[in-house]
Amino acid sequence: MDASNPATPATPPTSSTPAPRAVRQLRLVVSVPEGADFDQVLAFYRDVLGMPEQEAYEGEDDARVVILDAGRATLELSNPAQVRLIDRVETDGGTSAPLRVALEVDDSAATTRDAVAAGAELVASPRETPWRSLNARLEGPAGLQLTLFQELD
């Protein structure tokens, strides 16, 4: 079960065979703001959170893109009541951004300490959730809200 979603599935998947036009990859594109240090943002996600570099390209006018491997991707859709529940559990009532990235890590407490030391802002320290994960909330570089979660079972 996804650590940021304690709800049980409403309906089981209809088929384990992908549809002919099935999505092959989920790629979250983060625009590093003008004036931000691109290399510092890259180092945070690549070196601190441990996402290995998959591809990198450079273009005219100093255009750069680096694609990092973030493991298996899922798309979690939550209605407002579920978002409020998750916020209450993870942050004692703080509010989620419209897009929050949840990353499963081996040790959420250690990864949270490393992330804060590398410049992330701590929103909520690691805490055990009712769905048996250890979750922390951070404001990461480039304005990306993060949940670091560790499955406990």
Written overview of the protein:
The chain has helices spanning 38-48, 80-91, 108-117; strands at residues 53-58, 64-68, 100-104, 121-128, 133-139, 145-151. It has 153 residues and is of the alpha+beta class. The radius of gyration is 17 Å and the shape is globular.
Describe this protein with a few key phrases:
single chain, 153 residues, 2,3-Dihydroxybiphenyl 1,2-Dioxygenase, domain 1
Question: What is the fold named in CATH at topology level of the domain at 80-151?
Answer: 2,3-Dihydroxybiphenyl 1,2-Dioxygenase, domain 1
| Cα gyration radius (Å) | 17 Å
Query: Helical region count?
Result: 3
Read across the widest sheet, the strand sequence of neighbours is 3-6-5-4
| SS class | alpha+beta
CATH architecture of the domain at 80-151: Roll
Shape: globular
Strand content: 15-25%
Q: Which CATH class of the domain at 80-151? A: Alpha Beta
N→C terminal distance? 10 Å
Q: CATH-wise, what's the superfamily of the domain at 80-151?
A: 2,3-Dihydroxybiphenyl 1,2-Dioxygenase, domain 1
Give a quick account of the main beta sheet: strands, pairing sense, barrel closure.
4 strands, mixed
Order of helices and strands: HEEHEHEEE
What portion of residues is helical? 10-25%
List segments where confidence is low: pLDDT < 50 over at least 5 consecutive residues.
none
How many strands in all?
6
Q: What is the mean predicted local confidence, pLDDT?
A: 89
